[in-house]
Amino acid sequence: MDLLTAFRRYKSAHRLLKSVRRNDARLSTDRALTAAQEKEIKQYYRDLTGLDIPLEWHRYFYRRTGVYSIKYIPTTLYYNDIIGRVNQMQFERAYSDKNLTEALLTGIKQPETVLKNMNGYYYMDGQLVDKEAAVERCRDISDVIIKPSMQKHGDGVRKFSSVAGQTSIDGLLVEDLFKEYGSNFIIQQVVHQHQEMGALNPSSVNTIRILTYHSGGEVVVPYTVIRIGRKGWDIDNETAGGISARIERDGTLAKYAFGSPGNDMIETTDTGVRLLAYRVPSYACAVEAVKRLHLQLPHFDLIGWDICIDEQGDPVLIEWNVWPELSQSANGPAFGDYTERIIKEIWDRPNTRFI
Fold this sequence. Notes:
Blueprint: H1 3-25, H2 35-49, H3 56-65, H4 75-86, H5 92-95, H6 101-104, E1 113-118, E2 121-124, E3 127-129, H7 131-137, E4 141-148, E5 158-163, E6 166-167, H8 174-181, E7 184-189, H9 195-198, E8 207-215, E9 218-228, E10 243-247, E11 253-258, H10 283-294, E12 302-309, E13 315-321, H11 328-331, H12 339-346
Antiparallel strand pairs: 1-2, 1-7, 2-3, 4-5, 4-7, 5-6, 8-9, 8-12, 9-10, 10-11, 12-13
Helix pairs in contact: 1-3, 1-4
């Protein structure tokens, strides 16, 4: 390992450890792993990887959820050693451009695109247009989403309408909104979600996060969670203030949802819907859809999919991510019964994380 790679690994690990320690400090519960449990976890990962892993994540998830497992994935291991082996990260930047999703992935509904900005060039209906035409297209428009096309975790995602060129985002003019978003963004019509998804929170498009793993032509699903926005919020993901709950194999929800650290064991949504046994509409259809989609992306063996269910009950692809965050508070160990299989299958591959 060269010095630059070693430094980047250290810097990444230091940042992640600092984050989990900060999150742990926000918890009010007082649970601790026993010495025997810590020894068991260490041995498990030594046998699988040959590495001496940090225990901060196992301590954190046990303290937060009360569920002990040796199979929790430490985030340092995931980001520094797993993601670069399971996915060919040299393709990540280009393939993850949200402006390319329509061309890359077929066979599933996607939100209707109003406008794309790619490297400063504007496109409507697949045709290059000038800025004036792009601004005119968005002068009078309702219920659209604008988001950066090259960012993750819901950063910069905002809903707006406009009248006579003035938007509902702080009164910005369309031209100024474009200037704020720069040279890579996309504007799409809001998806009108299924009434049973909207009942969980009507202000956000609530999505199913499905984690898929591709191996030898087989696509398996280590976990699925539902992501629900809070009252009045447009965004559903945890990093933006939403909550997540595990979806069981029969398509019903687990008893508890989790939000930001310290916002734990939530039994009802802000609209008063009880989570336990609540049935997610078209769940099986969504799972089968992303399994088919994954086969169209051979450079990536681990993908996180965000799927909405529309008014007609059809799965709609909102986003996909080759660097998905792991919902281990809501779900439990990210890879579950597939943990040993995944790590053993990828461990001898080159690590493309730091290329």
